[in-house]
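thread: overnight batch results

M.L. [08:02]
morning all. the overnight job finished for the chain we discussed friday. pasting input first so we're all looking at the same thing
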Amino acid sequence: MRSRGPYRVQTHGHARALGGLSPTYKVWRNMVQRCRRQVGAYRGVSVCERWRESFSAFLEDMGERPTAGHSIDRIDSAGDYEPRNCRWATAEDQARNRRSVRHLTHPDTGETMCLTEWARRLGLRKSTLHYRVTRWPLRRALSEPARVANRAAADLLGGEVEAVGEEKYR
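M.L. [08:03]
and the structure it wrote out:
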């Protein structure tokens, strides 16, 4: 803290006059501004008072932005920006956290992932798994391995495909 006349100004080194704003400070500032304007997807979303009033409090709770590829993400997209509901996430992580993303729980293992992650795990295209899920029983859709049409395709898949809850198939 430093004094400026009768006022005490808290400094944190992230809003430098000549050096510009730090990436973490920009994330905080933009988050507060988005919620203050209350437009579009941010209507009804707010920032907790602790963070809204103090960048230092935000920094203490969240830490520095890990990389340029990370931004602030609300774990529960219907919730507010507050310490227990926020994390640093990549664009890929955030894409999986949208309300429109379908999550599937395997009936045998209880494991839950989005359709894209299941498709990757099973060695399937997303469209193939979507077809299976809408037409097959869920257990079969999430357990049956990819059908490999030829040896070249098998080599691309590493020679084996994992089926959840079962052994690997060659």
